Amino acid sequence: MTDLLVLAASNGENLKLAERFAAEARSRGGRAAVLDLTALDLPLFTPLAQDQEHPAAVAELEAALQGAPRWVICAPEYNGSIPPVLTSAIAWLSVQGSDFRRLFNGRPVVIATHSGGGGHTVLTALRLQLAHLGAVVVGRQLVSTAANPAKDDSIADLVSRLLALPA
Known about the structure:
The protein has 167 residues and is an alpha/beta fold. The protein has one domain: Rossmann fold (3-Layer(aba) Sandwich). The protein is 41% helix and 16% strand. It has 6 helices and 6 strands. Helix 1 packs across helix 6. The longest helix is centred in the N-terminal third of the chain and has 15 residues.
């Protein structure tokens, strides 16, 4: 079991950002893991796909998320919103079982982005969606760009806030 699971919704700069969050948690003695959503064999969620047998990758993703009491989500901004890989993953998770909020209810989450654009819109959309699902999204968020890269003290502060929340 990990204390902190860091999800990366891209295999570029957001994966690097995710690794920094995990390293910070480990430096505090925590058990942290990074999960690259782009590396999962997770098909696009569609109503037709939902009628088929659920992919094994969905069960693996759900188990990883269940096994971590706190999450960090690092996602780039795609056309002013959440990237497709993350949207599809959340959609698959929301059709598992009879209580789609069970996985998210009360879950402490930090949201962060490294984005080529402003990055604020993806965080707004993600905050709304996670709050709808019942997660406890930390008030502070992290926006990183090429011109304004993430600072170590900002990552440390967010990890500290996250680890202070009851799981």
